[in-house]
Amino acid sequence: MDALQSRRIEAISIAVAVVAIGAGTAYYLYITRKPKPCLDPDNFKEFKLVKRTQLSHNVAKFRFELPTPDSVLGLPIGQHMSCRCV
Known about the structure:
Pfam family, one: FAD_binding_6
Transmembrane segments: 12-30
Keywords: FAD, Flavoprotein, Membrane, Oxidoreductase, Transmembrane, Transmembrane helix
Number of strands: 2
Order of helices and strands: HEE
Protein name: Flavoprotein pyridine nucleotide cytochrome reductase-like FAD-binding domain-containing protein
Domain Flavoprotein pyridine nucleotide cytochrome reductase-like FAD-binding: 47-84
């Protein structure tokens, strides 16, 4: 009887540990996931022009609004993007 009870306690302990590890892994993956970038390399998207600053006679800085305040552009450092005016 004592052996049966110790096996049951061992099985419950293993089940609790597996559930805890699974929950911890799911939480970690949820927290560390990367947000989906706004840019699509295959299609042009429309963004509202918020501000245009003329820096010199042939250079201007354009500021565009992203869809939400939490949106991420997704453009790697040192990369460029193409703009199409319609």
